[in-house]
Design goal:
Number of strands: 0
Structural class: mainly alpha
Shape: globular
Strand content: under 5%
Number of helices: 4
Largest sheet: none
Helix content: 55-70%
Length: 59
């Protein structure tokens, strides 16, 4: 996942990972590590930007 993913790819990745049991917190880190901006992570996962920032600051 080192290349930039488009919106469709990100949504598919999230669905696939959730089916595998990946937690929301893990998804936040994975997406962040792969260059997805925090505000887009919050939109894709239907989370507040504050929550996303808090998860990332704890890591």
């Amino acid at each position: 996942m080192s290349m930039k993913m488009d919106e469709t790819q990100v949504k598919h990745f999230i669905i696939t990972e959730r089916r595998k049991g990946t937690t929301i917190e893990e998804l936040v880190f994975i997406l962040h590590d792969n260059g997805v901006p925090d505000y887009e992570i919050s939109n894709f996962l239907d989370l507040s930007i504050r929550y996303v920032e808090d998860v990332l600051s704890d890591g």
